[in-house]
Amino acid sequence: MFSLAVINQKGGVGKTAITVNLAGALAELGYRVLLIDLDPQGHLTEACGLPEAEQPNRLYDVLLAEPGKAGRETVAALITPWRDGIDAITTSVAMFMVEKQLYQHRGMEFRLQAVTELIEQLDVYDVCLIDCPPSLGALTDNALVAARRALIPVQAEDSAFRALRLLLEQVASAQSALRIEIELLGMVVNLLDRRKGRIITTALESLHQMPLPVLAEIRDLKEVRESWREGLPVVAYAPESPSAGEFRDLAKTLIGETGE
Q1: How does DSSP classify residue 211?
Q2: In the predicted model, what is the mean pLDDT of residues 196-224?
Q3: Fewer Cβ atoms within 10 A, N terminus or C terminus of the chain?
Q4: Nearest to 8 by CA among 198, 207, 196, 199
């Protein structure tokens, strides 16, 4: 199972929109996708039009369970069907307290990894996309450990660079402290509007000069906003739109397809 954390501690960069629309493009290509809403604010849960998790089937409870207590049946009960080829583990209000609770447990950074390992044993999903909170706390660390790969949505603006530096420092710190390797696949420049002038274009040029590759540029087009309102991936809402094409290209890039 290919797992990927969609991360950036800077809010408003469109992590959830990229996660949902990437899932739609991957499912269209025939991949079975699981979404995990790790953000207590629940934007992914809301975007999918799914109810918040309730006891006893909450990710909160499984993350805090004693090691080895949760099995495959427990983890399978967390999963809610969404669309053909896409299921989700939704969030709950209790997740606002989970970081505080995690700090009281040993091996707190490896709790989500234990969950994804059990999911992999279900032999249902090809891809797992983890929508992370806008923070550099224990939940983001859990996503990095579980996925070992990260995709970073950014915007072409000056404030993006300080946030990127902090994020890269966090990843380096996690790798050193936890003795793991995390692959930063690259950045997705989101909500791009070149009509805003030189401030945008110069920031975009600077992003392309960074060591991390820019894997895609997602323009700020109405179809993405409209599809969000309808609770659909853009490839389902407006399959012939430029936005749908951009997400299809991103999906193929991430899974190594040439599209030929």
Answers
A1: S
A2: 85
A3: C
A4: 207
